[in-house]
Amino acid sequence: MGRRPGRSCFGYPLSIFFIVVNEFCERFSYYGMRALLILYFQRFLGWNDNLGTAIYHTFVALCYLTPILGALIADSWLGKFKTIVSLSIVYTIGQVVIAVSSINDLTDFNHDGTPDSISVHVALSMIGLVLIALGTGGIKPCVSAFGGDQFEEGQEKQRNRFFSIFYLAINAGSLLSTIITPMLRVQVCGIHSKQACYPLAFGVPAALMAVSLIVFVIGSGMYKKVQPQGNIMSKVARCIGFAIKNRIRHRSKKFPKREHWLDWASEKYDERLISQIKMVTRVMFLYIPLPMFWALFDQQGSRWTLQATTMSGKIGIIEIQPDQMQTVNAILIVIMVPIVDAVVYPLIAKCGLNFTSLKKMTVGMFLASMAFVAAAIVQVEIDKTLPVFPKGNEVQIKVLNIGDSNMTVSFPGTTETYNQMSQPKDFMTFNVDNLSINISSTGSPVTPVTHNFESGHRHTLLVWAPSNYQVVKDGLNQKPEKGRNGIRFVNAFGESFNVTMDGEVYNNVSSHDASEYLFFSSGVKSFTINSPEISQQCGKEFKTSYLGFGSAFTYVITRKSDGCPEAKAFEDISPNTVSMALQIPQYFLLTCGEVVFSVTGLEFSYSQAPSNMKSVLQAGWLLTVAVGNIIVLIVAGAGQFSEQWAEYVLFAALLLVVCVIFAIMARFYTYINPAEVEAQFDKDDKEDYLEKSNPYAKLDSVSQTQM
Predict the structure, then answer these.
(1) Buried b vs exposed e over 633-650: b needs ≥16 C-beta within 10 Å?
(2) d(CA 150, CA 158)
(3) Is the CA virtual torsion 610, 611, 613, 617 positive or negative?
(4) pLDDT on residue 293
(5) Between the CA of residue 273 and those of 225, 270, 696, what are the distances in Å?
(6) Mode of pairing for the β-strands spanning 485-491 and 552-559
(7) Low-confidence ranges of the chain (pLDDT < 50)
């Protein structure tokens, strides 16, 4: 079915505007749902971190493996248009199912605020995720290829620009949704009990998916729809299989060599199919090194976010959380795509340089490699500020004197005097095997500390009299996660009390003992102390100093002379000092790399594919992303690096090596125009047909020339 003439706008077919809007809505829907998943698994379904993360990564990998299925359906059976419509319906159903699975009141029959049958919610959410993976993966290779189909011969420049706009739509959708859906989640809703509003947060992406489908169907009359050409993949597989078998059969010297190994299939398969397969295999061969780029690119969400948790989020007057740094990539994409397209490429062309697609991709890989070098430099800066924790057979000890008189404590090789409530020195490190500690005070006997110290941990020794002490295992042997701040309380009162801080409760902190650490985000927090020992006249409300990122404090609660409580803070782990703004250069380099690598890759995959295998090559391109994710899991699992910067340098070096290999492979690649090759075959077929239908025409022309 052709397109009605005259339906164009700014030299672009009008139909692509529907395709771009459709892609924007679909990506908003996908990333909005994905932004909630981990929290939904943990807080609603009650899964632990490991299970949640495993299911999440399995889902993401599935989303990049199903494109093969979508491509097969589109290129060999339904065609791209019908595939997109039918799989979008599956996708929308999946989004609705996951939204329904998050409705607390679905199984909360006794209205106590927790679902009575969590397995129903788990089953529904898994069904929803499988349908979504099938839908999003299935339509992925088809939408970009379908957009490319809308352009005529000679519109290469517009088609290249379309792939840039298309990529822009993907990132604009993901940027908006990652900002908006978490805002919806924190709303409170529910029929019988009020809860975090997952149904609304999942419902909005579901609604957008429905909008995406409707927009796409509205444009139906304007699309240029390429008909599918039978089960192309099985033909390709059979042809390759036959060529290999035939080559093995004729391996002796007496058979003349053929130009290409696929030419061995010419006895059984026509030349057109063989030449189309040659086009695809040449591009697929080039794809082999590409997953390494994605292996680095996909660490923004994992390793780089973890790096941000060891940094300070205060940039000028604004304050950002570690997981918000990922939006820098999407913001930069939205800025960089138009700049690169409208300014950088034309400038390079003006300088007379032939900046081909493969050269762009090589530059993209180099930039990503440099981004990881930048990340390693930042990591070295961070490492200088990190506290030293005990390793192997070591223990670390800090003394807090919470009594009324001065105490002398002797350790192997050193003796220290601690005044009442004085700020102690940093943690001291000792070997657990020859550790002897004695406490003494003027005019009283020496008391040895008998405690089974656990190696590899920090301990606090609380002393309040020569013969009275308590050893507390800190439980913190790394910086607090996610850039939060650990706070614990030490009770120097005669009996236990409760502390409430920012909605968290420290229950029954017993006398002359320490609570566990609880964790809080940055800012000033207020806390209340509740104890029958405290008279009504006393103030029970206190405020912390400003909490930065990644610190830990011990608040000692003592009694003043008037009997009222007093809080004194002691720093256990200093807050992060390296600013998150230092991550901007590595995000900038990686984003520039992505713009020249990813946008170009989409366009290159389309332009070099024969007409009946456009979706298959797009799916091959997406498969490199899936393999890249798997590489991260393998490298991170296999090489446990003691230093994080070393891992970044390893990844940078690997990509640099791959980049050189790719540049050499690209050097030997010859660009083709599949449409021209196919047109030549059409012309030859037509001549053959005419010859067969009228054999005398040729004889006639031959005799004329002879005469």
Answers:
(1) eebbeeeeeeebbebbbe
(2) 11
(3) positive
(4) 92
(5) 22, 6, 30
(6) parallel
(7) 1-6, 698-699, 701-707
Q: What is the pLDDT of residue 371?
A: 96
Helix/strand/coil for 684 = helix
pLDDT of residue 6: 42
Give residue 589's Cα distance to chain centre.
Answer: 17
For residue 640, what pLDDT is reported?
A: 64
pLDDT of residue 3: 43
Predicted pLDDT of residue 78: 86
User: Is beta strand 541-543 parallel, antiparallel or unpaired with respect to 526-530?
Assistant: antiparallel
CA 635 to chain centre: 16
Maximum separation of any 2 CA atoms in the chain, in Å: 137
Strands 565-573, 552-559: parallel, antiparallel or unpaired by DSSP? Answer: antiparallel
What dihedral do alpha carbons 252, 256, 262, 263 form, nearest 10°? -140
Q: CB count, 10 Å around CB of 254? A: 5
Handedness of CA 531, 536, 537, 541 (dihedral sign): positive
Phi, psi of 321 (to 5 degrees): -90, 155
Residue 226 DSSP code: P
Cα separation, 70 vs 613, in Å, equals 12
For β-strands 565-573 and 318-319, DSSP reports them as: unpaired
- Euclidean distance between CA atoms 19 and 169, whole angstroms: 10
Question: What is the reported pLDDT for 691?
Answer: 78
How many residues make up the chain in this entry?
707
CA distance 588 to 190: 42
pLDDT of the residue at 266: 86
What is the rounded distance in angstroms from the CA atom of residue 366 to the CA atom of residue 286?
A: 16
Ranges of beta strands (E only) in 341-448 are 394-401, 407-411, 414-418, 428-431, 438-441, 444-448
Helix 614-638 × helix 271-287 angle, to 10°: 30
What pLDDT does 1 receive?
Answer: 46
Calpha distance 610→377 (Å, rounded) = 45
Q: Which residues contact 660 (CB under 8 A, 6 or more apart)?
A: none
DSSP H or E stretch at residue 468: strand 468-473
